[in-house]
Amino acid sequence: MRKFLLSTFSLAVIASTTCCSKKDHNSDKPPADKHTGNLYYRWADEGTLKLDLGSGTKSVILPDDTKQNGFHMSRKQDRFLLLTDIEGDYDNEAFRLQDDKGTLIKEFKVPEGDFSGYVHPQLSYDDAYILATSLLPDNVIVIDIAQNKTYMLHDMEGQKFTDAVWMPDGSVLLSTASALYRSAIPFSNVELVQQFGAEAWSHVTVRPDGKKIAFSKDKHIWMMDLQEKKPAQVSTGSEAIPAAFSPDGKYLLAGIHQFASGGGPWANYYTLCILPADGRQYPVEEGSDDKNISWVKASGSTDPEACSGTVQWLE
Predict the structure, then answer these.
(1) What is the pTM of this model?
(2) Looking at the predicted structure, is the pLDDT value of residue 33 above 60?
(3) Which of 84, 134, 144, 231 sits CB 3.0–4.6 Å from 224 for a disulfide?
(4) Which of 165, 154, 180 minimizes the C-alpha distance to 123?
(5) What is the CA radius of gyration of the chain?
(6) 154: domain range?
């Protein structure tokens, strides 16, 4: 197992301070399996949504707010994490931990300057830590909620991080443009998980048991067992990304890339479908007659649900 010492891994520990329209879809085919659980996702000006897969009931859990830069629901679905701008303070933003009634539990103000501009906030599986990545200069931030301590990860051997995601055991998968690494607090040792080539890859998603991951490469979805480390392409057809594994790990929620014409550079979005996570290839595209693919639809709708950011699939 290849290891890297702290000398190759820039780390700082600092004290914390307190429109577009959907593409038409005419397929009304029933799902191949009756999926259950709740999906959480954002869409355009509707806000943050919850969809009960069993009943198809859709509800708004957070109204649309241009100051919100991301959200994450806890695994118990009893609290959620928000990343928001601070009104009247352009250079700063805050992580806000709230219960499911919207009552504030704790707030962390992100230091200004190089430590701002964060996206993809995530609660750890035990709700003890907050993880997020920044747009520029591509830092990874981890906040110990109880200890009020912040860890800042800057780069790996000079390569900037492109993403980070929690593992069930509390470790973190760290992505660069060419490789995937794994480390854990206090991040003194780093393991190389997989070296990739020059092709673009992104959107790492972890199966709930932590044994497998899915990611996007060459505009398709791939899966990899973290022990065997043999990536395999599992989607064909349209450009797609993995959004989330089902709670039991048997299915994979996929986002099919769409673009709203006339919407400008921010007109990218994804429609949602579900495919088996068995390692086989499936055609994830509109019009496919593969009965193993089911489009995610709210009750009474003939169009698949669309999202414009993070998606979670919880029990």
Answers:
(1) 0.86
(2) no
(3) 231
(4) 165
(5) 19
(6) 3-18+23-314
